[in-house]
Amino acid sequence: MPINDPVADMLTRIRNAIQARHQTVMVPQSKIKTAIADILKSQGYIKDWEPARGQRFPTMRIQLRYSDDEQSAIRGLKRVMTSVGVAQRVPPTERPLSRIGRQPIPIPSGVVVEVIYSGVVVNGPLGSVTQKYHPEVTVKVEDGNVIVERLTDRKFHHSLHGLTRTLIANAILGVTEGYARTLELMGVGYRVQQNGDGITLSVGYSHTVDIFPDEGLIMRVEGNNRVHVSGVDKQKVGQLAAKVRRVRPPNRYKEKGIRYQGEVLRLKPGKAAARRAV
Question: Which UniProt keywords are present, listed alphabetically (predicted)?
């Protein structure tokens, strides 16, 4: 069976030559083998090496070193790499995962965090948020901080560790500062009107589209082409904003539709404009 690893082939030839008590060994020459031979020579494991002449392929002759009692200078020869250029994997002593999960969450003044079964209830100046989490994660309140701990070092628990900590931190931020998303209407004739707690969109359809917020969310119209969605729950705010945008997603060719404020659209000129440019 041929050996595909050139370094392993070189070490095998040297080991076999030492076991047979040969003074020299012939090894196919390459840049990496030349570098290894130079290191072995500088460290005193071999006498010398030289290119072998009269060979069909580039070959190097390595002169082995023995002591007076015929003991080889090379002992315990072993390959420590699994393949060419790939070092043998050594398990780390500490896995650098869940850095976010280890950080305690400070509880601001005016905020109360109550731990319930598989969830926490966060009450603050702007409202209340109930955040569920996986039962294989432990959450506790100590010294004005929320501490999240995982059960084991399994990859699944590492993922839950950082996720749970982020969800609880978002809930605390929501009841203190709140979350908001702003959407803008683009297009001639596109407009939005306040309709009680909800909004009415006129975005190029033969009919208008009415959208009403869920409990705990606020929709406010600014002018006739801007909508503000706010609330204490980050997930619900983002979901309602996505629902409004989905009514008429922005068109990259006609520059029409509903987009998030600050959303960058790579507008396309279209086939006709591209032909005119040519």
Answer: Ribonucleoprotein, Ribosomal protein
Q: What percent of the chain has pLDDT over 90?
A: 43
Confidence category of residue 5, pLDDT binned at 50, 70, 90: confident
pLDDT, residue 18, reads: 86
* 91/123 Cα distance (integer angstroms): 44
Q: For the domain that residue 44 is a member of, what is the CATH number?
A: 3.30.1370.30
Instruction: Please indicate, yes or no, if residue 134 is contained in any of the structural domains.
Output: yes
CA distances from 168 to 28, 125, 214, 215 (A): 63, 16, 21, 20
Q: 148: domain range? A: 99-176
pLDDT band at 85 (very low <50, low <70, confident <90, very high): very low
Q: How far apart are alpha carbons 198 and 190 in whole angstroms?
A: 17
Long-range contacts of 33-39 (CB under 8 A, 24+ apart): 33/6, 33/7, 33/60, 34/60, 36/7, 36/10, 37/62
CA distances from 150 to 135, 141, 143, 261 (A): 10, 15, 19, 38
Same domain assignment for residues 54 and 13:
yes
User: Is there a single domain that holds both residue 161 and residue 232?
Assistant: no
Same domain, 17 and 71: yes
60 domain residue, yes or no: yes
For residue 263, the model assigns a pLDDT of 87
Q: What are phi and psi of 108, to 5 degrees?
A: -65, 165
How many folded domains does the chain comprise? 3
Average pLDDT, stretch 141-150?
A: 91
Q: No. of H helices and E strands in the chain? A: 6, 18
196 phi and psi angles, rounded to 5 deg: 65, -125
